[in-house]
Write a structure and sequence with these properties.
The complex is a heterodimer of chains A (about 250) and B (about 325). Chain A contains 6 helices and 13 strands. By secondary structure, chain A is of the alpha/beta class. Chain A has a 9-stranded mixed β-sheet with strand order 9-8-7-10-6-1-4-5-11, with helices on both faces. Chain A is globular, with a radius of gyration of 21 Å. The N and C termini of chain A lie far apart (about 60 Å). Chain B is of the alpha/beta class. In chain B, about 25% of the residues lie in helices and about 30% in strands. Chain B has 8 helices and 16 strands. In chain B, strand 1, helix 1 and strand 2 form a beta-alpha-beta unit. The longest helix of chain B has 14 residues. Classes of the chains: A alpha/beta (about 250), B alpha/beta (about 325). The interface between A and B is large, with 80 and 91 residues. Strand 12 of chain A pairs antiparallel with strand 8 of chain B.
Chain lengths: ~250, ~325
């Protein structure tokens, strides 16, 4: 079985981003970038399925600037087999990404596509579902457990209120939630080895996909700031303030 | 202009998130129709008809709609999409699951988790874990939108819309429900509670959460948690408040033993009043807290419990 894993290069999750003064976006100059944490979980899951003898090849795809190649290398160092980089500058929306991925799925015919549930930059939570729709494949989103059984995929999903288990008739789409696994660190020898693994470079035009955004960004602003609070000395004072000053008790 | 709102429910009662979505729809102008899809959910359809501003309720009743599987719901919504300029759903796990399928099939970009409606084609939504707000104008003919429940008023019960049955496409859908494991709780739902008390890694163990439970029972509050507390196995994952968990905006949020990582703040910083109890006075949570108490939570929580008892709770 072949697994396709799309990965995204995003601002590192520990960075507190700053909005540009001209309100055109957030300042990404000289900010640390990393693989989106949910994508790391997707790569890890694919590797575990391969280690369990359920998959034989893992192909990693990233769509973005040429630096996204580093993100693909990271996945290769974790254990993926080869990469596809689709170079595209600027903001590429989930719909365009899903369309490119659908073309790659047609070319590569994977049995399973594993994506992160959302990217921590645009927080959209759409790409996996959109890809499922474009391919007419079933989807198991927000997965906290994935089991392969022949062509079927059993997915336990994190839903409001608890967990839900569903069975998908493969080929299928899975999007990962935080508790699916703990991604491994790439070892130095594996990072060296990853440099020799192949990465194909493509463009959206190669796939005949128009990536012009459908959503025009009018402005990006700072969220409303909270007024500075006070420190209280004791629990009694806290209860008193909540009751008599804030009026919430 | 007509707007379709897809109701969130458990086949028995209408979820409050639907009320927020109806309010968002009313800000776009035009007729509002609500779709109730489920099995045996006629009570929900009736409740939806009473919502302020709703002109009509569409009720689809079928066995295969019982568990709100994405494939079946998307097919149903698509069968109705022709008549609408916009389709809205609450940004619950159900809405997040099926709506992007609808958008992709209609070849439009979904606008996720909106917090404000500026006009019929312009919306505000948080990005980067709520550290920036993006105003976007959609150039698509049809708008597909999910609505953040905590930022819109809940529509009231002043309406009297008629309920009309609609057929649901029957599939087959290549996906099947196997089982569900729902956490049982007598407390108010996290996203709807007026008061939320959350514990973090500082709680040290799951057993210690009873300290929060006692206070929550006194205040009729919901209990939440940070990702650290969930990952450590202290509480189930549906307690999680944050960028990747639930977004809450209660009147009062009490963060206990939570450092205040940006991913957690994304889920609670719109609360009206925030209280932080933490022994580390440098913890980032104090930068958003209205009232901060630097103290050992194992001392402070029993004291709080006692003070509340004294105050008549």
């Amino acid at each position: 079985m072949k697994i396709l894993v799309p990965v995204k290069r995003v601002v590192d999750y520990n960075v507190k981003v700053r909005v540009k003064p001209d309100q055109s976006g957030v300042d990404l100059a000289n900010v640390k970038m990393s693989m989106n944490p949910f994508c790391e979980i997707a790569v890890e899951e694919a590797i575990r399925l391969k280690e369990a003898g359920k998959a034989d090849e893992i192909v990693v795809v990233s769509i973005g600037p040429s630096q996204a190649q580093e993100t693909i290398r990271t996945a290769l160092a974790m254990g993926a087999d080869r990469g596809i980089l689709v170079t595209a500058e600027g903001r590429v929306e989930p719909l365009a990404v899903a369309k490119i991925l659908a073309k790659i799925v047609e070319e590569e015919s994977p049995d399973l596509v594993v994506l992160g549930k959302q990217a921590i930059d645009d927080d959209a939570n759409q790409t996996g579902q959109m890809l499922g729709a474009l391919l007419d494949w079933p989807q198991g989103t927000f997965a906290s457990k994935v089991e392969l059984d022949g062509g079927n995929v059993t997915v336990t999903r994190e839903i409001d209120g608890g967990l839900q288990t569903i069975k998908l008739d493969g080929p299928a789409i899975v999007t990962t939630d935080l508790r699916l696994n703990e991604p491994r660190y790439a070892s130095l020898p594996n990072i060296m080895k990853a440099k020799r693994k192949p990465i194909d470079t493509k463009t959206p035009e190669d796939y005949g996909v128009d990536i012009s955004p459908r959503l025009e960004v009018v402005k990006v602003t700072e969220p409303p700031k909270r007024e500075a609070g006070i420190k209280v000395e004791s629990v009694a004072q806290l209860v008193d303030k909540l009751k008599n000053e804030a009026g919430v008790l | 202009m007509a707007v379709l709102v897809i109701a969130e429910h458990d086949n028995k009662s209408l979820n409050d998130a639907t009320r927020a979505a109806v309010t968002a729809a009313s800000k776009m102008g035009g007729d509002i129709h609500v779709l109730v899809a489920g099995k045996g959910a006629s009570g929900v359809a009736e409740a939806a008809g009473k919502l302020d501003g709703v002109a009509k309720v569409l009720h689809a009743d079928a066995d295969h709609l019982e568990h709100k599987m994405a494939e079946a719901l998307a097919a149903l919504v698509l069968s109705l999409a022709d008549g609408y300029d916009a389709i809205l759903s609450p940004a619950t796990t159900t809405g997040k699951n099926f709506m992007p399928r609808v958008a992709a099939k209609l070849d439009v970009m979904q606008i996720s988790d909106i917090t404000s409606v500026e006009s019929a084609d312009t919306f505000v939504r948080p990005i980067y874990a709520g550290n920036a707000m993006m105003t976007v104008k959609s150039t698509d003919a049809k708008k597909v939108i999910t609505v953040r429940g905590t930022t819109f008023e809940k529509a009231g019960d002043g309406g009297s819309a008629s309920v009309e049955s609609v057929d649901a496409p029957a599939g087959p859908f290549k996906s099947a429900f196997v089982s569900e494991e729902l956490a049982k709780s007598d407390r108010p739902e996290l996203t709807a509670a007026k008061i939320v008390i959350s514990g973090g890694r500082g709680m040290a163990s799951g057993d210690n959460f009873h300290l929060l439970d006692k206070i929550a029972d006194k205040l009729n509050a919901a209990v939440g948690a940070s990702r650290a507390a969930v990952d450590a196995g202290f509480v189930p994952n549906d307690y999680q408040v944050g960028q990747t968990g639930k977004v809450v905006a209660p009147e009062l949020y009490i963060a206990v033993g939570i450092s205040g990582a940006i991913q957690h703040l994304a889920g609670m910083k719109d609360s009206k009043v925030i209280v932080a109890i933490n022994k580390d006075e440098e913890a980032p949570i104090f930068s958003v807290a209205d009232y901060g108490l630097v103290a050992d939570l194992f001392k402070a929580l029993p004291e709080l419990d006692a003070e509340l008892a004294k105050a008549g709770y």
